[in-house]
Amino acid sequence: MAWWLCSTALALAPIQRNTTNTSCRYLPTDKEWPNRADWDTLNVTVGGRLLRGEPLAQSCYRPHEDPAKCSEVQQAWGLDGLYYDDPVNVMSPFWLNNSCNPFLSSLNNTCTLDNVASYAINVTDAASVIAGIKFVQQKNIRLSIKNTGHDYLGRSSGKGSLALWTHNLRDMAIIKNYTSSKYSGSAVKIGAGMQSHEVEEIAAKHGLRVTGGLCPSVGLAGGFSQNGGYGQLASLYGLAADNVLEYEVVTTDLRHLIATPSTNADLYWALSGGGSGNYAVVLSQIIKAHPDGQVTGTTFSLVNTNSTAFWSAIQTWYQLSPRFNLIPGFTASWLFSNEYFRLTAATLPGGTVADMDAILQGFYQVIKELNMTFVGKKTIVKPSFVELYDTLVPPSQADASFPANNTIGSRLVPTAVVRDNLTDLLNVYRDILQDETLPGGVTVVGGTSNNVSHVNVGVSPGSNAVLPAWRGALLSSSAAISFPDNTTVQGLQLIQAKVNTWQDWVKALTPGSGSYINEATYDNPDWKSDYYGSNYERLLQVKKKYDGDFTLWQHTSVGADLYWQEDAEGRLCRV
Fold this sequence. Notes:
This protein is of the alpha+beta class.
């Protein structure tokens, strides 16, 4: 079958209209939209790797109804794995806009792409990226970049866009002796499509470990590291952005570049924590690789059978957190609801069971005094980090903690807030979990304590564009709603608004701090200060230098309010 033939509604000729306003990007409904010959030419240019976007759930809608296939999609709809190997669809019903939800076919008569890309190039090299950039600039259409689609801010999609799908850039090489003016030691070169867990597994086979994510399926070289990127090893080695040694990129003026602290240093600086997919298209990274070795870890749960005791236990955990943060390499990740508190993982590289027990003994004593009982409590030692983490948090369980049907907001909480204002912070968490105005779904509050201060992780101030608030944060705090598969568009909008409200409640207690952009909201009015802080103006200068015509555009990306804005139709138009 020819590449452009598909069985979706997109195969039908769109109703075209006259659009002469070149200050807006064209959509498939415009007469200026590239014709079939244009797309054929692009397909030849990229070696037959042009793909037409298709809604994942088209088998649930007429005229392409297929009950068996529809059932398969329904079973996988809330699982993020469905989206990684698709060139255009993203793991966010909010950004898919429910335009083809497999559970709403009885309510909706149509199945369309709506917010996601119309076409995608399966990127395999710099030449295919250059061809894609040339095409969108010549044809005046929108460009998007999609790796895994693991994104809650809509940055991996765009209505009527041509997507650069980087997920199949999957090369990986161990570099035993990487040498530069800033670092000498082991390193790993990874293609942009490599996901956290597979990089960790390969590195471990060579006696190494890397700074991966809590979610094993994030793309390391994509939005994870370019937006900072924290994980269970952050207290020992820093954020993912602190570990990047160099980037291989294509810029929108069609240059194929290497960016390091000494070559194209301003671009390297911006890419290292200053926002993803906004300055250049990343093809690969070289990241630090650290000697692997013994790691001790603990996990447990507490069930809320007595509200007073339950909240006393949570209070104690937070009271102890500043002490935890002073322990070299110690990192803890947890989440809780009205029903349970779960320590997902506490890890201590190089430690023993006795060391871990000593660290947590104060908490254990309080739990005993409260007459509470641990569920599933275990402390184990493994010879490598990836083996330990997989035992404590199996990859399937970790991915389930970041479901597709999820909306999340976050805030970096400084030590002083926990030390001096813990009562108010816990009252906010309580209000979030007991919010009766929630339009359906399950709410959890999460936290990760990792000390990524400059002194602790050996990173010089100003060496990268990581949000400065990270360096003084005790923990990253989040609140998330997981919602039913059949949630309507109106329900999704209410949930988005609710998370923004909760985010603001925590913000009121943490003035001058910020949020981890990968766990944040696209419509936060304070996005410049909350997501970029004092780095914003310098980042804007880098943006103007390397992408002066703003070919790259995403919600809340640096410069997003200067050049383009989305109209009610989802079209990008000049401000």
